[in-house]
TrEMBL record:
Keywords: DNA-binding, Membrane, Transcription, Transcription regulation, Transmembrane, Transmembrane helix. The lineage of its organism: Bacteria, Bacillati, Actinomycetota, Coriobacteriia, Coriobacteriales. This is LysR substrate-binding domain-containing protein. Pfam families: LysR_substrate (PF03466). Residues 17-223 form the LysR substrate-binding domain. Signal peptide: none annotated.
Length: 230
């Protein structure tokens, strides 16, 4: 029985090992997957046999998958101070302002910047469920909600649902303002008084594959070419 179980464990670990040109990327939602498109296109052009596997799951599940070797890299956003690194390490790539995201018809849409005390002029605020949003997004949405009447804060499943509500003109939302993740036709307005959000990746400590190292270089270069929200 013990030998049989040992053989099953070896076969499982073998199936978990990535092929030479395979890269397993963890994302929290479709917006993060969309942000990868340019980097994945370049990787596909420069690596014959490039085999990306994009896995979507909540933050806690993705962190566990990374530590157990089921994914090679996670996209991650957090406040500038972050959290202590453990079995994995965070690599910063871009600092993004917190942004009010609204439809062109929203009363806030014509402003270049908006203060926290002005958010209530925009109607209802859609915030994501903390179990389905990045921690940094949850923090800036909570801070924004504290300046809104409670009855005008509505819960959305995740940031994609919140953005759908914004597109419909039902509400506005708050997220990190990075142009690579913008939804067409929505307005992204920097919010004064909220912290920047640090965008980056999380990888396991230790030696990395050549494909992973190249992907990190390509992604960092792509993000640096993306103009910051003004």
């Amino acid at each position: 029985m013990g030998a049989r179980r040992s053989g099953q464990v070896r076969r499982l670990k073998h199936r978990q090992q990535p092929r030479a040109h395979q890269l397993r990327i963890g994302v929290h939602d479709g917006l993060e997957a969309q942000m990868l498109s340019s980097s994945l296109r370049r990787m596909n052009e420069e690596h014959e046999g490039f085999d990306p596997v994009v896995r979507m799951a909540p933050f806690g599940a993705l962190r566990s998958m990374l530590e157990n070797g089921l994914v090679d890299v996670l996209l991650e956003s957090r406040d500038p101070h972050g959290e202590p690194d453990g079995a994995s390490v965070f690599r910063r790539m871009l600092d993004c302002p917190s942004a009010c995201v609204c439809s062109p018809e929203n009363p806030l849409a014509g402003r270049d910047r908006v203060g926290l005390d002005e958010l209530a002029d925009g109607g209802r605020l859609a915030v994501g469920d903390p179990h389905h949003c990045a921690a940094a997004t949850v923090e800036i949405q909570r801070a924004a909600a504290s300046h809104m009447p409670p009855e005008r804060v509505m819960m959305a499943y995740n940031i994609e649902v919140a953005l759908a509500l914004a597109s419909a003109g039902v509400a506005f939302t708050v997220q990190a303002g990075i142009l690579a993740m913008e939804v067409p036709l929505l307005r992204y307005i920097p919010i004064e008084g909220l912290p920047v959000v640090t965008l980056g990746v999380r990888v396991r400590r230790g030696r990395r594959t050549a494909v992973l190292d190249h992907f990190l270089e390509v992604l960092a270069e792509q993000l640096r070419r993306t103009p910051e929200l003004r």
